[in-house]
Each structure stands twice: as C-alpha cells, then as structure tokens.
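Q: Can I see a sequence and its folded structure?
A: Here is a first one.
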Amino acid sequence: MIYLHLFFAFLKVGCFAFGGAYGAIPLIRDVVLSHGWLDEEKMTYMIAVSESTPGPIMVNLATYVGSTQAGLGGAAAATMGVIVPSFCIILLIVAILKKALENRYFQAVLEGLKPCVTGIILATGLHMIINNCQTTAGNGFFDVKAVIITAFLLLVLTVYKKKTGKRLSPISLIMVAAAAGVGVYGIGL
C-alpha cells in the first residue's frame, strides 16, 4: 500500500511541477510533510543534498523519500511517480510542439505561468532562508552563524557579479557555502 501512496503522491508533484525543480520544492515539501514522511529539518537537509548531487532535484528528493519509507521498492515507486508526467508531457510536446508554439493562446498561457513560477520560487527561497536562519529550538530566535553564512553568500554573489559582470555558477556557490559551513560550524571561526 505504501508503494501506491508514494507513487500517487509524487505523481501529483510531477503533474503540477511547473517551473522546474525549484518550483516543485513547495509541492514536494507539502506532500512529504502532510504524510509525515520527513520532518521540516530533514526535508531542508535533503533539499540541500539533492541540489548538490548529480541529477534533477525532484528525482533525487523522490528517490530519497521513497527509500526512507519503503526501501528500494519505495524509491522506485516515488521516482516513477515524479517522472511519468514529465515523460508523457515531453512525448506530447514533441508531437505537437511546432503548432503549439505558433498558437497565441498557448503562448499566452506560458507567459501567464512565468510570474507565477517566479513567485513560487521566490517564496520558497525566502521560506528556506528564514527557516534555516532560525534556531533549532523553534523559539523564534535566529542562529547567528546561519545568518552570517547567508549574508556572506549574498555578499559573495553581489561582489562576484559586480567584478565580473557574470553570475557565480551554482557549483562554485555550493563550494563556497560548504567551506563557510566548515569554517563556521566545523572549525568554529
């Protein structure tokens, strides 16, 4: 029964995950937390791990959640659930893409989805920043170390953009964040 729950829960995520992985994080978070499969802290850690490991974030998260709930079979069920909609949509789009892109109503739908996806990603990012900067005690106080790392990363992004005129690659940002985490939490700088 858990296999069906995992499959259909992640099928729902896969069906409504417009805007890629970052747009899907709120959906995955809602599904995972509502079923009690992970708590907020573990979910945040898994987002970070899924983002820094090879492969799509949605697939990585689905595979991890499925494996924690029902082993290899659960991982397969959740992963299949999250990828089936995209696979079917891509097949459909390939078949009708040229005509659809010429249709002004289809273009209007895509243009209308852009601000929605941007808002979802922004809201998720702000939610994650606030949650990660709060103390684990949940008393409303901020973890000073987490705030310092967040501010440092924003400073690095801003300075890099001003100096080079380019955006810092996600890989480089992950490496800087990892080094800052080791420096602040591991070594205690």
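Q: Show me another, different protein.
A: A second, unrelated one:
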Amino acid sequence: MIETKDLAKSYGTFEALRGIDLRVEEGDVYGFIGPNGAGKTTTIRILTTLLEPTSGEAHVCGHSVWENKDKIRSIIGYMPDSFGVYRDMTVTEYLHFFAAAYGIPHGDRKGLVGGLLELTDLSYKEDALIESLSRGMQQRLGLARTLVHDPKVLVLDEPASGLDPRARIEIREILRELRRMGKTILLSSHILSELQEVCTRVGILERGKLVAQGTMEEIIRSAHPNVDVVVRTTDDARAAVVLRELRGVLDCTHDAERNQVVAKVSEDLDLAEIGRHLHGRELGVRQMVKKDPSLEEVFMTLTKGLVQ
C-alpha cells in the first residue's frame, strides 16, 4: 500500500532523509518511530503529497507522489500532530463542513456523520461546541474528520500526543477497530508501549535512515537474538547450577530476593527442553515464562540517540 525506494530529502546541504526504503503492506498498522529530528514528519509529508522529495520514489496504493498527487489525496486520510479546529462550530457542524468539502452528497452526510460519531464515541457530544471538548475528544474528532471520505490509507502523526492514559487507550481501541474495517495505517508516535500493543509492523528511523523494519518479532530478534527465561522451581539455587549445564543456556543467575532463576538462552532453545532438563534432575517447575524485550528496549538497542 505504501512503498518508498531510495527516498531522499535535502534542504541545501542538510539531508533530512537519506535514501529510505519503506514498505507498508495492506492491512498493516505500521509504527513509524524515531528520535525527534529523525525525519518521520518529513517522510509523512512526502507520502501525503505536502512535500516533494529531492530524489527517489514513493508510491501510495501504486500511485506516485511525483505524478499522481490528486489521486493519492483522494485515497489517503492524514491527521497531523497539530491540526486546526473551528472552535466556534459544533461537533456535527464540523464534520458536515468537511463532508461537503470532500464532495459527499448532501443526502448522505447525516448518516455518514452519525456513523463517524459512533465510531469515535462522540455521539453524546454531537451538539457540543468544539472549544468545550477535552484534548482527547478533540483528537477523536480529528480522527473522525480524517475518515470522512472513507480513505483506504490513514497516516497519523502523533495521534496520542498530550493525551492522558484513558484517552490514549480510547485512541488505541479505535485504531484496532479501523484495522478490523480493513484500513491500512501508518502511525507515528513517541509512546512506544502503545505502539507495541497495536502495531503489526514497525520501522525505526534515525538521522534520516531506516535502521530496522519488520514485524515486532523480527525487530525484537534483530536487536536481541538471545532471550531471558524466568523460572521458579522447588530449589532455585540448585536450578541455576543445573540450567548452566544445558546447551543453549548462555548465562543463568539465581535471584534470591524474587525467588526465581533468570536464564539467558539462545532464541532457538525450546522452553519444553528446559522443563525436561529440570525434571530430569528432580527439580519441580512451578513457573516458566519467556520474557520478550519491550519495544523501548529494542529502540534503545538499535538507535544511538543521535540527532541531525
């Protein structure tokens, strides 16, 4: 649905993007992450035809950003990190205004607006002035506006920025519903824990370069080829010694304070094999959990904290 090839953008001698190859498949919720100044917003503006690249290619649903700007604008929904709202309008008036701007026939607008308000859980605020809405409600209204023309692709730049925990959860649930509806979503955010909850694939950008891209599992594996396994047994101190004998266990420590053993193992070592080894040495297993790194840990591993 979205694909770039050697995409670059320069401002004089400053290279904001340095040849990125981005790929977002149909039905993806693609998390686009990176430090401030990495080039995320520049990429998004190119994909939404608001900015021309210096070189390279970018396509949305097969349409080139160089040659098919109008077509891309008709199939893409863009929600910038900061969007203007007409604060003296009501919620319903605001959505009707944008429906008219997109050429939605007058007879279809009432049903469309009602459906969008229901999707974003704003029906009970349909007659409220926008200036009376909380930040979270205004974000949901902005998302509703983005959906007015039923775009195939959504590009959302920091949709949860500045929201409290409840509002972030509400936005996350709406994104899940949109994915179930068949939308393809490119999502930029600094809230990495939220991205890990909702994204199917991730791309990490640093200093204008794409340093990693893939499914969450692929990204985690590339950053942390070894994993931690937390084990609780009938004799944790002895279990720590016994597990070191097992091929594929790289390190093992006994955490007496938490009454557990933490084993660092190669990614291909099966948990069942660990269990069999412990049982063979007459150690009962009370609990065994594979602990995958968080997206924050992966991000810190793959990036160096450099800014342009």
